Amino acid sequence: DVEPGWGRRRKTDDDDGSAFQYDQVFPTNSTQEDVFLSVLQNSISYVLEGFNATVLAYGQTGAGKTYNMFGPPGESLDDQDLRGLVPRALDEIFDRIDKDKSGSSFEVKLSMVEIYLEELIDLLKPNCNQKLRLRESVYQGVWVEGLSHFSVPTSRAALELVLGGMDNRTVGATNMNDASSRSHCIVSLRVERAMPDGVVQCGVLHFADLAGMERVDRTGAQGQTLEEAKRINLSLSALGNCICALSDPHRTHVPFRDAKLTFLLKNSLGGNAKTTLLVACSSRLKDADETVTALRFGARARAVRNVVKVNQKLCAQELQRLLDKLQQEHRALQQYCLALEQQIEDTISKDASSTPAASAPSGAGNASAGVQTS
Asked: Would you state the pLDDT for residue 78?
């Protein structure tokens, strides 16, 4: 059992006294709206202001990660109570855009990618023969080359795309979950805001619904399902290694490239993003080992600190204003340096004029120095 507040595990006779601290703990009677208001509402504000944000759903298979992210399988577009984080975020984003009074224009683009057996699949164009590749640059960070991005004018249009992508996602039945996700799924919303002064801000909101960690002896995985479980566990292990490295101040190397999942989430894990980790735990006693493992992962992840900055492109007028300001500061520094040089010269001249002229000694001193006088 997990208590609200600090996330302390209740102590039992065989407990080692471990405690786990989190920013929020949701009891089993929490609603989808409770989770959304606590986890995501502030992040949406950041995204609309040009910052990046990410929500990661982590936990064992069958713990409810996909339910929290999207809602129950086959969700109706009009189901208001059981909607997950993604449908609620879409409604909130477009509602705030409609209410914006700043005169800004907005464009929202949506993409959806699946990592299945370490291969990237475009869920919005599943039959596309183009091979997707991960690329990285200094200015763009990590992105998926060849991934389709659809412009969505309304939250309903965006949700229809998401539900269509979910239909294309790879799922399978195991002993622990009849509709187990056999892949990692990342939904990305890119919100571009053109402000009246010409400045363009761009915030990206990622939803990463990770496949659940599995114990093969419990899931009964065989054949293809077993191969899927191996790849899932390997990528989650790579994720754990990255979190350990990021939380250790003495580590200089973070193995992001060990798996496509960690490489794709590089910016979210240790870069320019406000990242929220949602740990889904099972309340069943037979799942205690997996629950403790997930809690430990969450505790380590909480120690990671990201540095976020606004993503914006300045207009020509704003760039000129910035250039003028820098030139003005440069001229002020030049004048300051000249004043310092003049002050130094004045000090040297003053010291030289106040020092008496040296006179040559006579007598034995001259003889010993080999100087003859007439």
From this structure: 65
